[in-house]
Amino acid sequence: MPPENMFVDHDYIYDAFVAYTSDEYEWIIQQLRPRLELVDDPARLCIHDRDFIPGKPIHENIVDKMKESRKILLIISPDFWNLDSVPLEIEYAGMKCLEEGRDDTILCVLMEEIPVRQMPRALRNLWHKITFLKWSDNPDAQLIFWRNLRPAINPV
């Protein structure tokens, strides 16, 4: 069991910790990073392929990087539930939300329509504390998506 108060009394290095599967890595690099990091007034994203410390246990990397992040961004696809680290990421995200007393800590991007009943219990338990945004292949819907995600990650 993780220690109490592991997410309090810290400074943020990242605007958002990004949890994703390897299937979504290409979307992270081709869509998310250019729209959020490679712009004027960039957001600082924690992307595990780039920012985790090699050789450090995964659960320590997750806790340390979430602690250093103001928000948690879950990129949810049908394969998201199959990752070994997902239960930890969801559990720690929930703890961070509760410990910091902020209901706006967790954001979810739904890459596909996923019924709530198919989501893990840990995520369903946080349902009322999570903002969900839906990704679409429709260019008009994408404009709305980016217009909503950007200020949620890095409010001005």
Measured distance between first and last alpha carbons: 36 Å
> DSSP helix count?
6
CATH level 1 name: Alpha Beta
- Strand content is 15-25%
The helix/strand series, from N terminus to C terminus, equals: EHEHHEHEHEH
Q: Compute the gyration radius: what is it? A: 15 Å
Going by CATH, the architecture would be 3-Layer(aba) Sandwich
Structure description:
The protein has 156 residues and is an alpha/beta fold. The protein has one domain (14-153): Toll/interleukin-1 receptor homology (TIR) domain (Rossmann fold, 3-Layer(aba) Sandwich). It has helices at residues 25-36, 48-51, 58-67, 86-100, 121-125, 139-153; strands at residues 14-19, 45-47, 69-76, 106-110, 130-134. It has a 5-stranded parallel β-sheet with strand order 2-1-3-4-5, sandwiched between helices. Helix 3 runs parallel beside helix 4. The longest helix is centred in the middle third of the chain and has 15 residues, at 86-100. The chain is globular and about 40 Å long.
Structural features:
156 residues; alpha/beta; Rossmann fold; five-stranded parallel sheet; 39% helix
Short overview:
Helices cover 39% and strands 17% of the residues. It is of the alpha/beta class and 156 residues long.
Topology readout:
Elements (H helix, E strand, L loop, with lengths): L13 E6 L5 H12 L8 E3 H4 L6 H10 L1 E8 L9 H15 L5 E5 L10 H5 L4 E5 L4 H15 L3
Parallel strand pairs: 1-2, 1-3, 3-4, 4-5
